[in-house]
Amino acid sequence: MTKFNLLNDVNFDRKSSCFNSMLEDGKNQYFQVNINMTSIKLFSLIMCKGNIFKKLIIFLDIIYGKDESEDASYDHAVPQNPMRVKMIMKKLIYFCIIMPKKY
């Protein structure tokens, strides 16, 4: 089994979401990290302090799938992707009700 040091020459490729590190024997080690940003945004929205109105705007941005670079106006009353709303509501229930009891 070869060892590698994460703190030594780790490069990140944004296109493939892969980390690349040089092993002691000269070979390259690749590993990929998958992060669901919707889950992170939703969990941080619940856990962090803040004004309820600012949190509402962030919650709507999560539902509509907008980020900071896009216009924050909502031109339609219903989100275009109902499966996204369903997934976000499931995660909201999980983070608020199930996860505190489970852990």
Textual characterization of the structure:
With 103 residues, this protein is of the alpha+beta class. It folds into 2 domains: 1-34, no CATH class; 37-102, no CATH class. The chain contains 3 helices and 3 strands, in the order βββααα. The chain has a 3-stranded antiparallel sheet, with no helix packed on it. Helix 1 packs antiparallel against helix 2 and helix 1 (37-47) packs across helix 3 (82-102). The radius of gyration is 19 Å and the shape is elongated. 3% of the residues are buried. The model has no long low-confidence stretch (mean pLDDT 75).
Supply the key terms:
elongated; 103 residues; 2 domains; 3 helices; alpha+beta
> Helix- and strand-based class?
alpha+beta
Number of helices: 3
> What is the domain tally?
2
Number of strands: 3
Name the average pLDDT.
75
Give the topology.
Blueprint lengths: L9 E4 L4 E5 L5 E5 L4 H11 L4 H13 L17 H21 L1
Antiparallel strand pairs: 1-2, 2-3
Quick take:
With 103 residues, the protein is α+β, with helices and mostly antiparallel strands.
